[in-house]
Records
---
Amino acid sequence: MTLEHPTRPDLTARLGSLTLANPFIAASGCFGYGVEYANTVDLSTLGGVCVKGLFLAEREGHPPPRIVETPAGMINAIGLQGIGVHRFVHERLPELRALGATVFVNICGNNIDEYAEIARILSDHEGVHAIELNISCPNIKEGGIQFGCSLHGTHDVVSAVRKVTTLPVMPKLTPNVTDVASFARAAEEAGADAVSLVNTFLALAIDVETRKPKISNVLGGLSGPAIRPIAVRMVYECRKAVKIPIIGMGGITSISDALEFVIAGADAVQVGTANFVDPFIWGKLIDGLRDYMTRHDVAHFTDLIGTLDIPGAARKAPACTNS
Amino acid sequence: MWPASVPDPAAPAGLRPTRSGYTLGMPVDVHAEVLSNTRLSPDYNVLALAAPEIARQAKPGQFVMIKTRLGLEPLLRRPFSVFELLRGADGQLTGITILNKRIGTGTGQLYDLVAGDRVDVLGPLGRPFTPVAGSSASANSGAFTGTGSGAGAAVSSHAASVAPTPGAPDAEGAAAPAAWLVAGGVGLAPFATMAESLLAAGVETTLFYGARRAQDLYYADWFADRGVTVVTATEDGSAGARGFVTAPLAAAFAARTAGQGAGSAIAGSAIAGSATANSAITGSALADSAHTGTARAGTGTAVESGVPAAAALSIYVCGPTPMMRAVSDLAAQHGCDAEVSLEQTMGCGLGGCYSCVVRVREDGRTPHFVRSCVAGPIFRGRDIVWEELAH
C-alpha cells in the first residue's frame, strides 16, 4: 500500500449469491479441467474456472483436424471430448478444490433429464460453485443447441436443473439466434441465476485448393477477437432485457476488451481463446483492472457494470436497419 | 494419459506425472530477443533465441510455443521442437534455437526475423524422450542435463522388449547401450539436444538422416563433429543412399539381427555434406561393434527366439508421418520399440484446447484420443493408431 492509494480498488465481482475475487473466469472449453494450468497460474487468484463441458458419460469428440485459424480468430469443433461427470468429480474436482479454485462446471445433456442428473451429481460434491448449462455448443448433433435455439427448450432445461440444485445455475447462450435477449429473458423467467454469453458463432472455413472443409466436422464455432464487437452488442441487448447477472465473453484479449463487456452490462467476463495464446493473461487482466479503476477513481468493480454513456441519446431506439 | 494415483512406470526421469500429462517445473513465457537468424536455404532457417529460463529446463524432445508476431495475424502460437541449447562463454545456458521450415504465415514470419527482433516463446512443454535404459543416463540422469532422477523413474517403456533392467549391473565387458535417431527433413529438430544428452551419457549414437537432396541435409556435420555416426539418404541420390532413410535403417536392423552391431553396419556411411557413393550400409563389421548379438547377463531381457538379444537399442524418430510409421513398424519387426515425435496442429500446447489429439492404443484400453501436447509429443510408436493420422 502506498500513500497515494490508501485503499486498493475492490475487484470483487458478484453473480447473485456467488462472490468472486475478481470478474475474470476461465471460459469452458478453453482451460481444460483447470488442473492443466496449475503450473502457470494460481487458480485461486482467478474469479473462477469454468471447466470443459461435461456429459454424463465420457465422450471421444471429433477426429482431428479440430481447429483452424481464421482472421483474428479460430474455428473449433472439438466435439466435447470429455471424461464425464463421474470421473470429473472423483479425479479432477478434488485437485481443483485443493488448488482453491472457484469452480464453474459446464454441463451438457442429451436430454433434459440428463442435464438434471448431472446437476444432481455435482450438487452432491463439495467444491462446485456454479453450474453453467451448455445449451449452445454448435458442434454436436445431439443435445445442447437444440435447447439453446428454442425459447421453450431454454426455459425447460433451466427450470429442470433449477429444481434439482441450489447451486447457481447459468445457461450459456448461443449467438446463433435472431434475438439473444429473448433467450436471456426465457432463462430468467425459468429461474436462472445468471446468463453466460456468447458461445461461438457457427462458421465454416474451406481449403479452396482441395475444396475440402478445413476441420473434420465441416462446421465449427468461431471465437477470438473477430467476434468481440458482436458479442459486446449482445451483452448490451441482454443487459436491457434482464435483471439477472450477465457473464460476458467473446474475443477478450486485454483488460480494455474485458471492460467493453463490463461497461455494456456484464457482471463478470470469461476469457477463452486468449488463454491459448497467453496462459499468463490472468495476472495482466487483474493488474489492468486495478490500474483502470485507480485511474478512473472507481472504488468497486461493481460500480463499472453497465455504465455505457451514450452521449445525448440514451433514449434512442436501437438501430435495426441500415437506413 | 496416466492416472495420477498410479505411479507411471514410464515416466521419464525428473517428471511428475499428473492427470493431465507431464509437467516439468514451470513453463515460462519469454519475450525473447532474436540473437541470430541463419537462413540455411530459401525454406529453412535456424533462429537463435535468448531464453535462458527455457534452456535451463528443456529436456530432449520437448517443445516451445512461439507467437510469431505480436497482434492477431496469426492469432495462435506455433509449436517448435527445441533444436539446440545455446551456451555463453562461461558455459551457462543462454537460449535455444529452433529449426524452422517456411510453410505458412507463421513460419514465414519466423523466417523473416532479424537479430534484435523479439518473439514470445513459451516453454518448455510436453513429454520428453525417454532416456536410454541401461545407460548412465537412466541411472544417474546424465543424459538429461540437470535433472535428478532415480533409476526406477527411468524405466523405459519404449524398449521394454530389449532394455535391460535399469540399475542392473552391467556384465563385465557388456556392450554399451546404443541409440538410433531417425530424422526426415525438418524432423531433425529434436535430435540435437537428444544427441548431446546421449553422447554425454556414453550412449553410442547413430543418426539416420533423410532428405530430398544433398543440400537439404542441414547440420549433418554438427552431429558428426560431436561423435554421432551419421547415415544419410536422399531421394535423388545426391548424398548417401538413394531413396528414403528407411532403407539404410532396414539394412542396419538386418545387420544387427545377423549378429553385427549397428556401429559395424554403418561403417563407411557418408557424413552428410561429404556425399559418397558407398554411404549405404555396408554390412562390414567394425572392431568396436557395440552390439555383440549376445544377451547381456543379468538383464532379464526377454528375447524372442531368432532375434539376437543385443544390448539396449533405443530408437527415436521424427519426420513425415509415413516415415515415422515405417520406422515404427520396422523396429517392431526387429523386436524394438521406437519413440516418435508427433507434430499435430496445436492450439495452446498446455492441454487446454483439446485440438491436438491423436488416437493411441494403451494396454487394456480401447484406442482413444489423447492430447499430443501433454501426453506427447513423444509417443511410443506402436501405441499410435497410424492409419488415422493425416499426411
---
Amino acid sequence: MKDKKPRIPGIPYWLLKQIYSFDIEEGYAGDIEEEFHEILLRKGRKKAVIWIWIHAITAIPKTVQLYLFWGGIMFKNYIKIALRNIKRQKGFSFINISGLVVGMAVCLLLFQYVTFELSYDDFHENAENIYRLRLTNFAGSHGAAGLAVKEAFPEVLEYVKLNKSFSGGIYSYKDRKFQEEKVFFATESFLKLFSFDLLNGDPETALSEVNSAVLTESAAKRYFGTKDPVGKTIRYQGINDYEIKGVVEDVPANSHFHFDILVSYKTLIRRRGEWIESTWISCPYYTYLYLKPGTDIEAFETKLKEFFTQKEKEIPKDKREDLNYHLQPMRDIHLFSNLDFEIENNGDGRVVYFLTVIALFILVIAWTNYINLSIAKSLERAKEIGIRKVVGAFRIQLIKQFLSESLLFNIVSAAFAIFIVQISSPYFNQLVNIPLSFTLLNNIRFWLILILMFSAGALLSGLYPSFVLSSFKPAAVLKGKSIRSGRGRVLRKCLVVFQFSISFALIAGTLTVYKQISFMKSQDLGVNIDQTLVVRGPQYSRSYYAFLKTLETFKTEAKRIPAVSQATVSTFVPGEDAWVRHGGRRKNVPKGDEKEFRIIGVDSDFVNFYQLEILAGRNFHKNIIADQNSLIINEEALELLDFKNPEEAVGKGILYRDRPSRIVGVIKNYHQESLKENYEPLFLIRFLWGSNFSIKVNTKNLQKTISSIQYTWNEIFPGYPFDYFFLDEHFDSQYRTDVQFGKTSGLFAFLAIFIGCLGLFGLSSYETILRTKEIGIRKVLGASVQGILTLLLKDITKLIFLAITISLPLSYLYFHNWLGNYAFRIGIGWWFFLIPIALVLFITLFAVGYNTIKASLANPVDNLRYE
Amino acid sequence: MKDLSNLEEVVMVAIWRLGEDAYGVKIKNEMKEILGKEYFYNTLYTTFHQLIRKGYITKHFGESTPIRGGKRKVYFQLTREGMIALEIAFDRQKKVWYGVTEESLKKGRA
C-alpha cells in the first residue's frame, strides 16, 4: 500500500481546500483523499478523477460566497476608514485627488489624440499591404512606374495611379456651380484597392470609362440634393461632361488624402495624351502598390532598386529623370512622410510621440504625488496600524487595506477625469486639430485599456505606501515613537526631483517654441506681403493669348478701384510651396547634368509689387517681346549655376528645359515659403499657366473695396467663383502646427507644474508640522524669522536645483535638436536657462512659502505646547 | 433548545450509530446507507460546523494514515446536549408519525 504513491489531481484538490481553513481542514482534506483512493482502488483512476472534479466544482459557489462575505466585510471597513480619512484631512485629500484627476484627464485626452493620429488609413481593409511608390524626396512617381513595376514583379497584385487636379476647376449641374478643390484622377483599381464604400453603382466599372466620375456623398448632395446622381452628368469648366457612375461615403478624417470628386484616369489620358502612360520624365502621379500579403518588404525593395537601376540604363538619358524609387507603407504616410509634393500636409510623428511621453509623465507625476503624500501622512496612520496589528491583522491584510484605499482614490479620480474629458474634449480636439466629435468614450478597447491602466496605477501607487505602512512595529508605534523612515525620505526627495525635472523641461520647451515662432513671424521675409489680397484665378485652357488678355484686363480694371494701388498676377504667391520644378543648365554644361529649379510664372509687375530687391540686371519689361524667353533668378540659383556674382550672370544664356533662355536679372533671396524651409533656387519666368492675382488694397473701408473687386471679377470672369484671402494671414497659417505645438506644450507645462506644486504644497505643510517643535525651540533660543525661513526653504531649494541640473542638459539637447528642423532658427541663449529656473523657483517658493512663513511666524509657546 | 434541520438530524444519527468510529468518510457512507444519497464533503463539513456551534457534537483528532496523505482523521462525538436534542427529535418524529402505518398510507387516508 505504501509504495503505491497516492497521486491526487492538483487543481480540484486545491479548489476544495479553499473552502475551510484552520484545523478542520485537515480532516476534510484527509477525508477527500481517503475516499479518492478508495474509489481509485475499487473503480479505477478515471472514475476517481471524475469524482473529485465533481466535488471541486460543486464546491466553488460556496468558496466564492465565503470569500466575498469575509472579504466584503473587511473591504467595507477599509473603505469606511478611507472615507473618514478623506474627510478628516480635507486639504490633503483635495491635493491628492485633484492631482490625480488632472493627470488622468490629460492622459485620457492625449490618448484620444494619439489614437486618432495613429489610426490614419487604418480603415482600408488592405492597409498593411499597400505601399506608396515614391522618389527620394518626392511623393509622386512617374507615369510609367506603376505599370512597369506591376509587370515585372509577381508580388505586386495591383496598383493604383492617382493624380490630383491641382486647379480643381468649376463643376456644374444645371444652375448649380461650384469651385472644386479636391478632384482626383484615379485608375479603375482605386475602388478595389482602397476601402471607400460605394453606396451606389458598381465598383468594378465605376472608373473604367472615359469621362466617368464618382462623387462623395456630400459632393453629390451639393449638386443633386436628394436625387440619385447615378447616371446624371456634371459639367467640368463648361466644356466636358462627366457621367456619375457611383457615390462613395465621405472620406473619413483620418485618411491621408481627401477627395470630393474622382474622375476616371482614362479621362486624364484623353486630355493630356497617351504619353503620360509611358513617361519617365513627368512625375505628378501617386502610385500605390498592393503587395501580396507576407511579402518580405526589405528584399522586395532591394529588388525594386535593382530593377530601376536596370531601367536607368535602358532608357536614354534625355527620356528620363533619376529613378531612385523607394517604398513607403501607406499607414506611415500621415505621420512620417514629409516629402515634396505630398497630397496634403501630413502630421508629425515626433510631436505625437512627444505628447505621449509627456502625458505619461504627467500621470506618473500625479501618482508620485499620491505615493509621496501617503508616505508623508504615515505618521497620522501609525496608531491605526498599530491597533490593527495588535488586534490581529496580518501584514497582508494591511497591504490589502492600503491597496484598496489607493484603488478608491484612483476610481474616484478616474470618474472625475472622465467627466472632465467629456466636457473639455471639443476644446482640446480643436487645439490639436482633430475632428471635434472624435471621442473614445464609446470605444470598448479604450475602456479596457483605461481599466487596465488605472488598476495598474492604483496598484503601483498603493504598493509602496502599503509596504512601508504595514511594516511599522506596533509596540513602538503605540508608545508614540516617531517612525520617520529614512528610506522613505530619500524616495520622496527623488520623486520631487523627478517631477521638477519634467516641469523644467516643459517650461524651457514651451519658451523655445514660442521664441522660435515669434522669431519666424518677425523676421524680414525679403518680400512685402502687407495689405495684399490674393484672388485665385482660372488656369489657361485654350488660347494662351486670349487668356493673357483677360488677365491684363482684370488687372487694369482692378487698378481703377480707388483703394487699389497695385496688382500683379503670378502662378504662385509667396507663402505657397512653388512645387513646379524644371531642369536648367548653363550652355557649357552637358545635357543630362541639369540642376532643378523651382519655377514661378509672373508678369512684369511681380517684382515691384512684392518689392523684391534686384541685385543686378533689370525686371521683366512689359513690352519687350524677347522677355518671353528671359529668366530672373535668385541668389540661390546663382550659386547653383556657378556664377561668381550677380553682375556676371546678367545677360548669360541658360538652357531652360533645353530651350535657350537668357538671364535678365538677379534678385535677392526671399522667403517663398515659411522660415522652416530653406531658400530654394528659383526661376521667375514670363509664362503664366495659372493665375493668382495679388492686389494691394488700402485697409480703410475694406469691405467696400472687396465688394467692388468682386464686382469687377464677376464682369470679367463670369461664373468663376471669387475666392480670396489675405496674404499675411495666409503666410502665418504655415506656422499653424508650430503654434499648436507651442500651445499644447504650454498647457502641459502648466498642468505638470500645477500637479507638482500641489504635491510640494502638501509635502511642505507636512514637513513643517513635523518640525513644529524644532522651530519652537530654535525660536526660544533666539533664532530670527529669516533664519528659520532659510532653514525650511534650504531643503526644497536644493532639490529644485538638483532637478534643474538633471533636466537642463537633456532639455537643451532635445530642443537644440528640435530647432534643427527649422532652416531659419534662433540660437538657444541665456533665456533658455534663466527664465525657467526663475519661474520654477518662484512657483515653488510660492507653493512652499505659505506653510513656511506660517510656521516661522508662529508663537513658540504654542508650538511647544502642542502636545 | 435549538431546532435541528433534517440534514443535521441525519448527520447526528449517523454519528450516534457509528459511535467510536465517526469520522468524515464513515459518516458519509453511513448517510448513504440511511438515505441512499451521496452528500458532498463541503455540505457535510458545513453541517459539522453548525452542529459544533450549537454544541451538539465535539471533534477530536485521531490517527493519520498514508492513504489520507498523512492527514489526521477528525472524529466527531455527540455531547450531552446532542443526545438530548436527538431524543427530543426522536420523540417529535414519533408524535408526528403516530398511528400512521404503511397500509393506511397506501390506502390513501387515515
